[in-house]
Amino acid sequence: MRIETNGIELQVQVSGSGPDVLLVHGYPDTHAVWRYQVPVLNAAGYRTIAPDLRGFGASDKPTELAQYELAEYVADLVGVLDDLDVQHAHVIGHDWGASLSVLLAGLHPERVDSLTTLSVGTPAAVVDAGLPQREKSWYFLLFQSLGIAERWLSQDDFANTRQWLASHPDLLEVIERMRDPRALSTSLGLYRTGAGPEFLVDPPVLPPVLAPMMGVWSSDDAFLTEQSMLGNEKYVKGSWRYERLDGIGHWMQLEAPNQVNELLLDFLPEPNPASGDRASSLSTSATTQ
What PANTHER family does the record tag this protein with (predicted)? Predict the structure, then answer.
């Protein structure tokens, strides 16, 4: 469905019924990155709300860089909840979607019942992780260069992208989306407004997360160190839970959906004991969509 909010239109997948779960994707993905979680959460008694962020997928792609300030993404998420008459939701984010979910939880705590971040946590914890994390985040600086970053990603039939994102299970689909020059540029808006050089030395100061929070990190993540997730505990005033998945890469919800789904269902409060057996819902076909 299309939802008009904050001056643009977003493509949003809404399915199921019950307590609301907002699913926020990261770079370079769309709502489809949650395709293995949506049917399981729906079967367990939750309604899922999975938007394509501005600049991604089928959502609008504004032309001005100022339209990609992180505050705009947060306003988009609040607007989606408002349009669907959702007062509060459980929020699950991955990659940049996790960072945006942290911003949502910090700035609008009344809208977030619980927070789950996959791969990434609070911006401050990423900076706190020090030089090992900075080395993994080398591309933050490259992506600040308008035109140069696009050329680097697309040259020689996306050879650099194929190497850099080699672990992405949907790599060929990602490249097909990037063949649209506009989509290639707009998807970099997050980095250009939220991960410039100043981020490495002066991360945004946010209110602490008040909601219960679970952080999940995977040992084969090529982009994030474990310390960048472990360090989130100091920025959480609610309960904090850490989970590590061994032998899994950055896109854990695609690579190990059963393990991720089990963690999500264990962390989320059960909506209704009569809604069905959770164990059986884990076996729901991953292709259901």
Answer: EPOXIDE HYDROLASE
The pLDDT, as a whole number, for residue 289 is 35
**With a threshold of 0.85, does the pTM exceed it?**
yes
Burial call 234-257: b when 16+ CB within 10 Å, e when fewer: ebbeeebeebebeebbbbbbbbbb
Q: pLDDT for 104-153, tens place per residue? A: 999 999 999 999 999 998 888 988 898 999 999 999 999 999 999 999 99
* String of DSSP letters for 62-125: -SSGGGG-HHHHHHHHHHHHHHTT-S-EEEEEETHHHHHHHHHHHH-GGGEEEEEEES---HHH
d(CA 271, CA 206): 30
How far, in Å, are 185, 190, 207 from residue 150 at the CA level?
7, 14, 34
**What is the spatial distance between Cα 96 and Cα 253, in angstroms, rounded to a whole number?**
14
Question: Is 198 exposed, middle or buried, given 0-12, 13-18 or 19+ CB atoms closer than 10 A?
Answer: exposed
Q: Which of 149, 148, 180, 175 is nearest to 163 (CA)?
A: 175
**CATH number of the CATH domain containing 228:** 3.40.50.1820
Helix, strand, coil % (nearest 5) of the chain? 45, 15, 35
DSSP conformation letters of 253-280: HHHSHHHHHHHHHHHSPPS-GGG--HHH
Provide the 8-state DSSP code for 133: H
What distance separates the 2 farthest-apart alpha carbons in the chain? 55
* pLDDT 10s digits, 252-283: 999 999 999 999 999 999 886 544 433 334 43
Question: How many structural domains compose the chain?
Answer: 1
Domain residue limits at 47: 2-133+204-273
- Looking at the domain assignment, is residue 114 inside a domain? yes
At residue 230, the 3 state secondary structure works out as helix
The answer on pLDDT for 21 being more than 60 is yes
